[in-house]
Every structure is written in C-alpha cells, then in structure tokens.
C-alpha cells in the first residue's frame, strides 16, 4: 500500500477537550456497569475517530451482508444495522461526552454500544466507569489467550478486562540503507542495530552522520515517544500534580544537544511539511522512530517510489510504541450478544486477524498469527528491501509498557513538544520553556495546581 495515511496518534494529539484525572477515585469491579442482557436491539451504534475500524468490520466480519452507499451504516445478515458515528480526533471526546450524558435515558437503539478509544485518553473513560467488563458479555480469558498480555493489562480494572484491541503499535527505528552504508559502512539490520543499541552509540552515529553531511533525525519530536513510553510513572497520579519524569528531561537534553550540534534538521514536530519532506528519497535524514502503521503507510507514502528498497528497520536504543486503541463496550448497551460475536471475530480469531495483517499490512493483536508471519520466509517487505519487519515488531510487542498510560497523556505530550520548541532553537532559556509548559498545562487542565520537575 503506497499512499499516505494520517497518523492515528497525531490526530489524537490534536484533541483539545479536557480530560479527567487518571488518579483520584478508581473504579472497582463491583462499580463497573453491567450490560443489558435481556434482549438484543436492532441498531448497534459504534463511535470511532477514523475509518480504520469501520473498514475492518466491513471487510472482515463474517456476519456483514452489505454496506450503505454513504458508508454510514453496515447491515448484518440477521438484519441488525451497525450505525457508524465518526468524529475526527480533535472533536471526538467532546462529541462522545455529549452522547454519553444521554446514555442512561436514550432509547435502546440510540445508545452507544461500542467505542474505539485511543490510548492517549482511554484511561479517562476507563476510570469514569462507562466501560462494561468483557466477561459481562461472555468473553473469557480463554477467548483472549492469543492477545499480547500487556494489551489486556492496560485496560484492566480490578482484574476485569474492559476492552480489546485489533492492532498493536510497537515501534522500531527505520533508517535509509544508502545513508547507513555511507555513515556506518553497512546497511545490514543486525549490524546497524549493534551500532544503535543504546543512546551513547546512537549519539556516536549521529556525530558520524553529521561529518558525512547527514542529519541523524529530522527534528524535535522524533525521539519523544521513545522517552515518554519509558517513563517511570504517569504524568499525573493525584489529579492535581503534573510530575515531569526524568526520562522526559533526557529527551529535552538530547534534543537541545542535537539541535545545537546540527544532528537534527530542526523540524518542529511530526507530520509537519518539513518532517515529511525529510523522508523523501533525496533527503539527508538517517532515520525515523516509527511504529507499525507509520512504516507501512506514512513512511511508504513520503518516501515515494524512489525510496522503495532503500529503507530497513532495527530495534534502536529502547523499546517503545506509537499509537494504540481499544474497543470498549459502553454501559447500558442492548446488544451484548452481537458485540460479543463481533469482538470475538476481530480481536480473538487468529485466522481473521492474520488475514487482516496480510491484507492491510498491519500488526494485529494476536501473537500466534504474528509469529506465523514472522517465521514465513515469504513475508518480506519490498519497501524494506525484503526484510521481514514483522519479526522485529513481534519481538518488541511483548516488551511495551502500558502501565503508565494516563488521562493527561495527550495534553502533556502536546504542550511539552510545543513549549520547548523555542528553547531548542535558542530563542528562550530552559527556565522560560518550563514556565511556558506550566502555563499551558494549567490552562488546559484547571484542576492542576502544581508541576514538579526532577531535581
């Protein structure tokens, strides 16, 4: 698939709606809402922030009979209608919150049944008690045995799994083979990994790249997800204090040093025009930290036909992920049996999930399916010069740490990157950048009273 697709996570980063805290009062299993199992409705309402999930259902759910011409409705073989409620990420939470206010009083066929939640704000809804445990609709641990354990742990409340994901988004470092040969003397993924296996080695490679007339990274936000995914604690744990993790300070220090030394090309954020141009075949950037969707879709489109075969991937200095979403069952749904069948097909059925991976070139949440593709000698990527990148993704996926996901992730990420841009460029001091971040966070989240920085 050689076209540009907008990043799932980037769209999510642009959401401006306020999030409730990931700290404070937690919901226990006894507090969780229950599904209405008395009878099935005639309409299944599914809220999504883009068309990916709709396409998965329409193309791979065996019970689909037809799709309306406008794409807003999917009709199942038994006559049940799936109505798709699509709101772009920048307004998704606002629209969803408005609908959830009516969930208790709405007519059954007007209630929300399934919500596709991004990781950046999944905790907001998990902690607010709008999600039904999957066991409540009859999905068992045995059913979910093929899913990567960390994806289940991330959405568990008091031992109850409250959602399931179709895809997983482990990250790798994608690099230009031609530049690697010039800078490191080889483009072999195993050998390149040896030279980039920790941050000291990564810095040494950046120095060599500069000497050869290249940039190691495009800009300020390129390595951000690697550091933010390796924080030791959530951004907020008490609903009123933002604690900046030492890992974020390492990102700030590294980015400032790279900017001053000319090791990056000074693009201000991901998905800017300059950042995308730095992935073209005639660009001078060594590589990019990307997850599954990024390599398979976005990078392919930005690199163009001339870039095919000139890219490869390695694990890089640290494991990370970029992008994640979970399908959750909304409280008061009147379609538990239909939802159970749909989720079993798309998040638990190895054969269906493997087919999705092979057709769409994505990484699905089924370890057995991914292992089969990883071990298949015919599964190499033309774009990556024949490399089977699924094998590396499959090694990284189990190591991802979702434990520090927090309802404030989205806002903290956005404000951190933008507040420190002028510092990286030398226009303001470090203290001024910290003040800019503190101001932005308190404006975004009025409940935040204090921002703590590492000593």
CATH topology type of the largest domain? D-Maltodextrin-Binding Protein, domain 2
Q: What general outline do the C-alpha atoms trace?
A: globular
Number of helices: 19
CATH superfamily of the largest domain: Periplasmic binding protein-like II
Mean pLDDT value: 91
Domain module count: 2
Radius of gyration: 22 Å
Question: Can you tell me about this structure?
Answer:
This protein has about 450 residues and is of the alpha/beta class. It folds into two domains: about 220 residues, 3-Layer(aba) Sandwich (D-Maltodextrin-Binding Protein, domain 2); about 200 residues, Periplasmic binding protein-like II (D-Maltodextrin-Binding Protein, domain 2). Helix content is about 40%, strand content about 15%. It contains 19 helices and 16 strands. The chain has a seven-stranded mixed β-sheet with strand order 2-3-4-1-5-15-6, sandwiched between helices. A three-stranded antiparallel β-sheet has the order 13-9-14. Strands 7-8 form a two-stranded antiparallel ribbon. The N terminus is likely disordered.
Task: Describe the structure concisely.
The protein has 455 residues and is α/β, with parallel strands linked by helices. The chain is built from 19 helices and 16 strands. The protein is globular, with a radius of gyration of 22 Å.
